[in-house]
Design goal:
Spore Coat Polysaccharide Biosynthesis Protein SpsA, Chain A; cell wall biogenesis/degradation; transferase; 7 strands; membrane; Glycosyltransferase 2-like domain-containing protein; 7-stranded mixed beta sheet; alpha/beta
């Protein structure tokens, strides 16, 4: 009974409270009405309302995410710049000189491109904030501008470009006619040589019955630089020459800047030294003058004065065992003979299209140009290898000079101006390998530019005739 009385009292109290809450006068201070101007419904859903504290935490969370993103972008940019700087520094120290120069140029181009992009971005931002609007030109104004530019171009072309181009065209026509006449004369000379069977004749022949003292002292030089693939073949071919060992000395002139290449070449030289061959290994500490500087340094040795002739072979040449016996006899009885040049033979002439084209070009050079010039005027350009020089002639014309990269042409012209004669042997061939890739184009351009510079130098010296050439 007591529980039912208590429940009855609670029910009456609760009804009184509900009646008080249902009165319209008491709602003014118990509820707060928040109206949204964007909607016509005065009531607001409780699920979409946010308190001031919740909004504060929401904005703090967004600011934290923004700060985290900015910090991540900053750290990533710094890491990227540090990585790029480390790779640039590593490329400068570890890579060879040629590749490092090209990589430095590439990095400069990349830096300039990035700077240009940043400048354009800044300009775009400035245009956006300043309110600059660049509208494209109309079709009529564009056509008028194009017509004015084309008329101006025709005026410039007719008044300033056409006369010098016409003059250059006339010069090219004259040079073409001169070269055509030269080629016709060379072809006629080649036919005459074949028809009359003209060829140089040696005064003596070495058949092995002579005394050792009858063989002249010969110095063999093999200049090379980082030749990993062919150094063994060239050194072996020179070491097995059919010539008395005590009358021959081989100089391996190594200009390699790679330590492993130096060790390989030095080990090959030591192997032949143990077999009794007179061979020396030379490496320059100051590598200046390229091949001319290397040969000049070798000729300054004290023991060179004991030798009468010097044979030069590049690292990609493998002369036959009888090379010296086929070339040295032509110097006998010809005190004015400075050079005996042999023909090149190509072991890979049919490897690809590039080697076949080189074979055609160089075969014409040896078969026609050098053979005709050697027979009729006793002068032609030294090919830089596979030839034998009289050391006295080299000394009289000034030796190897480091002023150009076409040192073979330089010394040949100076020797000819000093009165020395040359002989070309078309029957004696020295095998070599042709370049198999497109690097030959860069080499040809470099040689052509150096030859033009050398021609200018000699023309100036001949016209002035004041200084010794």
């Amino acid at each position: 009974m007591s529980n039912q009385a208590q429940n009855h009292e609670f029910q009456e109290w609760w009804n009184k409270q509900r009646g008080f809450l249902d009165k319209p006068d008491s709602t003014a201070f118990l509820t707060v009405e928040i109206s949204n101007p964007t909607t016509s419904d005065p009531t607001v859903d409780k699920g979409h309302t946010r308190s001031a504290r919740q909004l504060s935490w929401l904005w703090l969370l967004k600011f934290q995410q923004l700060a985290t993103s900015l910090a991540w972008l900053t750290n990533g940019s710094v890491y990227l710049l540090r990585t790029a700087n480390r790779r640039i520094a590593a490329s400068r120290t570890d890579s060879p000189s040629d590749s490092s120069a090209s990589s430095r140029r590439l990095y400069r181009i990349i830096k300039l491109f990035l700077l240009l992009v940043i400048l354009l971005l800044c300009f775009e931002l400035a245009a956006y904030f300043k309110g600059w609007h660049f509208s494209p030109p109309s079709m009529e104004s564009a056509e008028a501008a194009v017509e004015r530019a084309y008329a101006k171009w025709l005026e410039i072309r007719a008044g300033y470009l056409a006369p010098p181009l016409q003059s250059l065209t006339n010069v090219c026509i004259v040079l073409f006619l001169i070269q055509s006449v030269d080629r016709v004369v060379l072809m006629l000379g080649c036919f005459w040589i074949k028809f009359r069977k003209l060829r140089p004749v040696a005064a003596v022949e070495y058949d092995g019955s002579e005394n050792v003292e009858d063989y002249p002292m010969v110095l063999v030089q093999i200049p090379m630089c980082n030749e990993r693939e062919v150094y063994q073949q060239s050194i072996s071919a020179c070491c097995v020459q059919d010539w008395p060992k005590e009358r021959m000395l081989i100089q391996v002139l190594d200009d390699s800047d790679e330590l492993d290449a130096q060790l390989l070449i030095k080990a090959e030289v030591q192997k032949w030294q143990q077999r009794g061959v007179h061979i020396l290994y030379r490496h320059r500490l100051i590598r200046t003058g390229y091949k001319a500087g290397n040969l000049k340094s070798a000729m300054n040795c004290d023991y060179v004065k004991d030798y009468e002739f010097v044979a030069i072979f590049d690292a990609d040449f493998q002369p036959g065992p009888d090379f010296l016996k086929k070339t040295i006899p032509y110097f006998k009885g010809k005190d004015d003979l400075a050079l005996v040049q042999t023909r090149w033979a190509f072991v890979n002439k049919d490897e690809n299209l590039l080697t076949r084209l080189q074979n055609i070009n160089l075969s014409f050079h040896f078969e026609v140009e050098q053979q005709v010039n050697g027979v009729f005027i006793n002068f032609f350009g030294f090919n830089g290898t596979a030839g034998v020089w009289r050391i006295k002639a080299l000394e009289e014309c000034g030796g190897w000079l480091e002023r150009t990269t076409v040192e073979d042409m330089d010394i040949a012209v100076r020797a000819h101006l000093c009165g020395w004669k040359f002989i070309y042997l078309n029957d004696v061939k020295s095998p070599m390998r042709l370049t198999r890739n497109s690097n030959i184009a860069g080499i040809q351009v470099q040689c052509s530019c150096s030859a033009c510079a050398l021609l200018t130098h000699f023309v100036q010296r001949c016209l002035l005739a004041r200084k010794r050439i």
